[in-house]
Design brief:
Layout: E1 2-3, H1 11-19, E2 24-27, H2 30-38, E3 44-47, H3 55-61, E4 64-67, H4 70-82, E5 87-93, H5 107-114, E6 120-127, H6 139-156, E7 162-164, H7 171-176, H8 190-194, E8 214-225, E9 248-254, E10 266-268, E11 273-277, E12 282-285, E13 296-301, H9 303-311
Parallel strand pairs: 1-2, 2-3, 3-4, 4-5, 5-6, 6-7
Antiparallel strand pairs: 8-9, 8-13, 9-12, 10-13, 11-12
């Protein structure tokens, strides 16, 4: 599954994921899935985060949803019945990371309850690790998920065609696992988008780490002192700033701010240093570079930066095709 939430369900990028070979597009926001459907993308859409209040629209717009609450699944069943549909779900199991998931000891009861819902089909189970608790997906966790799959299939005489072992953090496990057992699916966002695995942010061979560039315009470029002048109080975000005296130096301001981006996630392409930021300005030490106003400064992004930049309505998105 290609995960499109970090790119706000941008249809052009989801399309590239499909061309790259993913079988499903998964997103945590229903709004993103609706956007991709409306753009004419043909695939099976998976909703990663299922909210009770959206049940009707989920049944209408999503092929498969990830679930952990029987009340929500009951609501999905109700609307699936009304819309004459079978809604497919993947049941998420808690394997130690403590984000979403049903405790393994409660799994059988959950599956038993879903078996009474005539418009719900359980097509798999899954787990999510290294997201909240930073727990590593390893052979032991994947074996546990495989075993749970086997037990459920035997106990309920069902088949679970999808066993979804995790996200971009599963790369290391996948590369080194002697056998993947029942795991036949991963839900991958960051690795596809930024070319790295996510346990150590190591690059994945053959992938591009800089497919995304953020470009900002220089709106001020001046020699200025490095120390502010006056009584120090709180800055725009309630912090008391501290400063390093580097004498008179060249500073530039770019038309970007914390409303658009996590400044700490910006990695300048050139030898520049980010000194600080407010909601709408980022101040940089431009060192030996002669950056005139109107010129551009380019940055690479990490996941948080990509997420924020894609979400900001003030940042124009431009797609460049490479052949
Ligand atoms: C966001 C998300 C993913 C994708 O995570 P990446 O680290 O981007 O690969 C997978 N599964 C779930 C449930 C998610 O919420």
């Amino acid at each position: 599954m290609g995960v499109s939430k970090a790119i706000l369900g941008e249809p052009a990028i989801a399309k590239a994921m499909l061309q790259g070979g993913v079988e499903f597009i998964a997103d945590s926001h229903l709004e993103n899935i609706i956007k991709m459907r409306n753009a004419g993308l043909l695939t099976r859409f998976v909703l990663l985060r299922t909210a009770l209040s959206q049940a009707e629209s989920i049944v209408q717009n999503v092929d498969i949803s990830l679930n952990t609450e029987i009340e929500t699944v009951g609501k999905l069943d109700h609307f699936a019945n009304a819309q004459h549909k079978i809604h497919q779900i993947i049941v998420m199991v808690e394997l130690g990371d403590l984000r979403e998931g049903i405790l393994p000891c409660n799994l059988s009861q959950f599956i038993e309850q879903t078996s009474h819902l005539s418009n719900i089909e359980v097509i798999g189970i899954g787990c999510n690790l290294a997201c909240y608790g930073g727990i590593k997906p390893n052979n032991q966790k994947m074996h546990e998920l495989s075993e749970l799959t086997n037990v459920l299939e035997q106990d309920f005489r069902i088949r679970l065609p999808i066993v979804s072992g995790g996200n971009s953090a599963n790369y290391e496990w996948y590369k080194s696992a002697p056998k993947v057992e029942r795991i036949n699916n991963l839900r991958i966002g960051e690795s596809i988008l930024l070319g790295c695995e996510t346990l150590h942010r190591d690059p994945i061979p053959g992938l591009h780490a800089n497919a995304f560039k953020l470009i900002a315009e220089v709106i001020e470029s001046k020699q200025k002192p490095s120390l502010p002048n006056g009584e120090i109080s709180q800055d725009a975000f309630g912090n008391i700033p501290t400063f390093l005296d580097r004498g008179i130096h060249h500073r530039v301001i770019i038309a970007l701010g914390r409303q658009d981006i996590l400044p700490s996630s910006l990695k300048p392409e050139d030898d520049l240093e980010i000194l600080g930021s407010s909601s709408d300005h980022v101040v940089l030490d431009s060192k030996h570079l002669d950056l005139k106003i109107g010129s551009e400064v380019k940055f690479d992004l990490d996941y948080g930066g990509l997420l924020a930049a894609m979400t900001s309505p003030f940042i124009q998105k431009k797609f460049v095709e490479f052949s």
